[in-house]
Amino acid sequence: MSARAAEAWSKPPAVPETHYVSGLVYSDESVFADEKRRIFDRTWHLACHESEVPEPYDFRTVDYVGTPLLVVRGADRRIRTFFNVCPHRGAKIVHELSGNTKRFTCFYHLWSFDAVGACTDIPRQEGYQTVGLKKDDVGLREVRTEIHVGLVFVNLDDQATPLGQYLGKALDAFEGPMTAGKGLEVFHYNRAIIQSNWKAWQETNLDVYHEFMHVLLRRTQMTAAPLEDRKVTVHPNGHTSIAGLRAKYEYYKGMQSRDDRLALPTLRADDFIFGTVFPHVAVLARGTTMRIDVVTPLDAHRTLIEWRGLGVRGDSAEDRQARVRHHNQYWGPFGRNVPEDAYAAEAAEMGFGRGAARFQVIARDEGGSGQDDGMLRAFYGEWSRRTGRPAANPSNAPMA
Ligand code: FES
Ligand SMILES: [Fe+2]
């Protein structure tokens, strides 16, 4: 087969409709509007790890697809989340990324709120007496917040399925590493805006085949354990996980083997376990350390990625240094893998952003092992179900 002229290039790939994706899922503004309304407004979003708000009155702000959020630990140690917007005239209240305070005061007219979202002060409140407006009427908007294996999830939809039911068994493999013993804490937080549709980043976490792109994975991962030992699991609600991955760190110059003494609870130092939560979270544990990605669209062509690195709470300085090194060799901003993935996502935007690329093929079928595309298909299956648009042809009229 030779190169194709325009008409042939526009034809869908000759594979089942579930095994390819139209470029319109990245570039069509009406698709993006539906994603916001039908996916992001209704699914559970990973706001932070509980160790990021360890003490009463610790807070953290989050920008969630156009909705500013404020996560606060109360005096009762419960973590609550609110819209980070003022009920007075709508201004964003807290502008710092994190901190500790008993009182959130809006800079605009100095209305104040406490850690449970109640309005505690309105300057010159007597001006509202005529109409009878009281502090009790103007609390913050509380957002559903639930915690699983230390991960703080929020949901804008008060009617959404509870978190445990939504996740099912998707994160079961992380229960031991994340909760046994002293638990974990975040030691690394990094964020970047990449020039691509949000799905292009999440695809790097769903696409096992792309380990060919990373020289580090070609050496340390593809040769460490038989490809047939891998097992992709597709969970309900579009979540995925993969088991059976290992690494031989000594196969890459400059990396030494990981010490089993530093392995996270229930893991071996050379284990690599991996899970994704639909739509936009990936959780990875590489024996001695963990990485969590949260992928948040800013618009159809720009995406905020937040990366967290985790180690064991109460690590000695020496052990922590080793974990940080292990994390950064793969996943730090100057690590071997993460910058390569960022370029892959931006390269996909170069192809799809203006329509030059028409389709992508997600048709590898190795029976759920090896480099199967089953995780990509699970993602797009759920995406189609939720948006009401087939990923192979999203311009088909949405279902009611
Ligand atoms: S907008 Fe916040 S006090 Fe007025
Ligand atoms: Fe990658």
Read across the widest sheet, the strand sequence of neighbours is 2-11-10-5-4-3-6
Task: Using the CA coordinates, give the radius of gyration.
Answer: 23 Å
Query: What would CATH call the class of the largest domain?
Result: Alpha Beta
Q: What structural class is derived from the secondary structure elements? A: alpha+beta
Low-confidence stretches: none
> How many individual domains?
2
Oligomer: single chain
Mean pLDDT: 96
Proportion of residues in β-strands? 25-35%
End-to-end C-alpha gap: 41 Å
* Distinct bound molecules: FE2/S2 (inorganic) cluster, fe (ii) ion
* Coarse morphology: globular
Number of strands: 19
Helix fraction by DSSP (H/I, runs of at least 4): 10-25%
Task: Output the CATH homologous superfamily of the largest domain.
Answer: Naphthalene 1,2-dioxygenase Alpha Subunit, Chain A, domain 1
CATH topology of the largest domain: Naphthalene 1,2-dioxygenase Alpha Subunit, Chain A, domain 1
